[in-house]
Design brief:
Layout: H1 2-54, E1 57-66, H2 72-79, H3 82-92, E2 95-104, H4 108-117, E3 122-125, H5 127-132, E4 137-148, H6 155-160, E5 166-171, E6 173-174, E7 176-180, H7 184-194, H8 201-205, E8 209-211, H9 217-231, E9 241-243, H10 247-256, E10 261-265, H11 273-278, H12 286-289, E11 291-295, E12 299-300, E13 303-307, H13 315-328, H14 332-338, E14 345-348, H15 355-367
Parallel strand pairs: 1-2, 1-3, 8-9, 8-10
Antiparallel strand pairs: 3-13, 4-5, 4-13, 4-14, 6-12, 7-10, 7-11
Length: 368
């Protein structure tokens, strides 16, 4: 009987051990399967997230239009590095740009029209051009630039403090100047101003003037307001006016004595100081041979505007362009590129910033 009981207990114990072993093995296999599934799920999730993080939107071409405030070839050469700078910044902001196309408009209006038509995506245009074409363009940035040691509204003050130099202060406005050249008539007008005499309309009307296109703030609009404020006249009332395609060509005409007075931004003579003698053939410096005969109130700075009608433009792209130019302006290479327009930086802009410019435009339109 003892042997029989011993055998039964041994068999029972073996059955229990086998059952426990199978249970543990099943649990281990189930755990392995669960772990494998979790690993696969996590790996798949990470892959999807990585794809989302690295997937930039592709844009074949991003086009930029510049107004011809300097010689077009000079602008094209100076802004060539902008292509790679913009591609790099846009890539970090979620956009892969295949090509950046840079052009210089034949005049200010051409760039405004291209923005309105949607054939140009980005335009570096003055405030005056912007408000004329704001039905198809939207401002995103306003340029800042170094102030000048001269900021008086008195022409004589500018002549007494030549040469004009940059200051450390960053400003969001500039002035337009009426500059008389080395011609006999130009010197005659300058002499009256520097002696403290007030110029009459007959004085200014006896000179030959060079102006820019009608949407140029410094090259037309604000000089027209200066004539209105001082003589109740405007540019169309002057007997002898020629239109220049750039300030550079206007300075060339001034140096050659083909015109007596030109209108330009303050102080464009700093940008033409070398060419005055080297290319324009003058023997004396530009500071000795030119004088300011009129100064306008402050003009709000140039814009970077985007097209409302470009088929690729949306709020995300607009925000990326805005941030990209802000970033570019903070680099040394970027500062060198934007200096072609005397820009030293940018700040975010609102359409309402240019309400005064609209009033100026309305006044000019009513005068014409």
């Amino acid at each position: 009987m003892k042997k029989i009981w011993f055998l039964l207990i041994t068999m029972l114990f073996a059955v229990v051990l086998v059952a426990c072993g199978e249970s543990e093995e099943g649990s281990a296999e189930e755990a392995d399967e669960n772990n494998t599934e979790e690993t696969e799920d996590n790996t798949g999730g990470e892959t999807e997230n990585q794809e989302e993080e690295t997937s930039n939107k592709e844009i074949e071409t991003l086009s930029i239009g510049f107004v011809p405030s300097r010689e077009p070839e000079e602008i094209i050469t100076a802004t060539e590095p902008l292509k790679d700078l913009l591609k790099t910044e846009m890539e970090t902001l979620g956009y892969d740009i295949g090509e950046v196309d840079i052009t210089v408009g034949t005049n200010y209006e051409a760039v405004g029209e291209a923005l309105s038509a949607g054939t140009t995506d980005i335009g570096l245009i003055p405030g005056g051009t912007y408000v004329l074409y704001d039905d198809g363009a939207e401002v995103v940035l306003t340029s800042t630039r170094a102030g000048l040691n001269n900021d008086s509204d008195s022409a004589k003050d500018w002549n007494d403090n030549k040469p004009t130099e940059a200051s450390d202060e960053q400003v969001t406005y500039y002035r337009a100047l009426m500059i008389a050249g080395p011609s006999d008539k130009g010197q005659e007008l300058a002499e009256k101003v520097n002696s403290g005499e007030e110029l009459t309309f007959d004085d200014v009307n006896s000179a030959t003037w060079a102006v820019m296109s009608s949407s140029s703030p410094a090259g037309y609009i604000y000089p027209a307001l200066w004539l209105k404020d001082n003589y109740d006249k405007t540019i169309t009332d002057l007997d002898n006016v020629v239109q220049s395609d750039s300030y550079g060509s206007a300075f060339a005409r001034l140096a050659a004595g083909e015109i007596d007075v030109m209108v330009t931004y303050a102080d464009a003579r700093r940008d033409n100081e070398e060419t005055w003698e080297s290319e324009f053939g003058r023997e004396a410096s530009i500071w000795d041979e030119t004088n300011v005969i009129g100064v306008t109130p402050g003009i709000y700075n140039d814009t970077i505007s985007v097209s409302k009608n470009s088929d690729k433009m949306d709020d995300d792209l607009k925000a990326a362009i805005q941030q990209a130019f802000l970033n570019i302006s903070e680099t040394e290479e970027g500062k060198e590129v934007i200096s072609i327009y005397n820009h030293e930086g940018y700040q975010k802009a609102e359409d309402s910033d240019y309400d005064n410019e609209r009033q100026a435009q309305e006044m000019v339109q009513s005068l014409n």
